[in-house]
Design brief:
The chain is an alpha+beta fold. It is rod-shaped. The chain has helices spanning about 5-80, 90-100, 140-155, and strands spanning about 105-110, 115, 125-140, 155-165, 175-190. The longest helix is centred in the first third of the chain and has 77 residues, at about 5-80. Strands 1, 2, 3, 4 and 5 form a 5-stranded antiparallel sheet that branches.
């Protein structure tokens, strides 16, 4: 059926307008769906970032708890050893006097407590040291080892600065002459420093 061109237009106009309207609605729906998807993706990315940030905070908190646990064990060990807080000079003096009774000629001197040079106070705590100088003649090296072991059993942390052992030059006192310097270390509040 051959219809003239002008007669086709009225027949096609309705379906073409419907097709054009459907195409515009389809494009609009596709655009709306794209906007919806982009918005949903942005919200999903934001939620993932928040979850990631929260997971990072949880991991940091766990690490801090692990460190706190380790520091608590260290603190308990140092506290039990008598390093934290005031010095235990009475125990030190009692030990040294007992050693002096057992070892004639033993001389010692405990210096005043001072902040350890070069170590700054941190969080209100300071590392302190008291110098101990000891000189005596032991029958042999075992006497020095026993003395040293006794010092390490006392409260506080004893660190050897220097120790010199030589054969005794005196014929009336054979043995080993021991001349040592130690630092007795303690941790206390920075305000607990003893003025010199």
């Amino acid at each position: 059926m051959n219809l003239p061109l002008r007669q086709d237009w009225p027949l096609l106009r309705g379906p073409l307008l419907g097709l054009l309207l459907a195409a515009v609605c389809g494009c609009g729906l596709a655009y709306a769906a794209t906007l919806q998807r982009t918005g949903a993706q942005a919200r999903l990315d934001l939620a993932r970032e928040r979850v990631s940030a929260m997971q990072l905070r949880v991991d940091e908190t766990r690490t801090q708890l692990d460190q706190l646990d380790q520091h608590q064990r260290d603190y308990t060990r140092l506290r039990g050893r008598g390093v934290i807080g005031a010095e235990h000079r009475l125990e030190w003096a009692e030990f040294l006097e007992d050693q002096a009774r057992r070892t004639p000629g033993l001389r010692y001197q405990i210096a005043a407590r001072r902040a350890l040079p070069g170590v700054e106070a941190q969080d209100g705590l300071q590392l302190f040291a008291s110098r101990l100088d000891v000189r005596f003649v032991a029958a042999d090296e075992t006497g020095w080892s026993d003395f040293n072991a006794g010092l390490h059993r006392l409260p506080g942390w004893v660190a050897e600065r220097r120790c010199q052992l030589e054969r005794s030059a005196s014929p009336d006192m054979p043995g080993v002459t021991i001349d040592c310097s130690y630092e007795w270390l303690s941790i206390d509040h920075a305000s607990a420093e003893v003025p010199e």
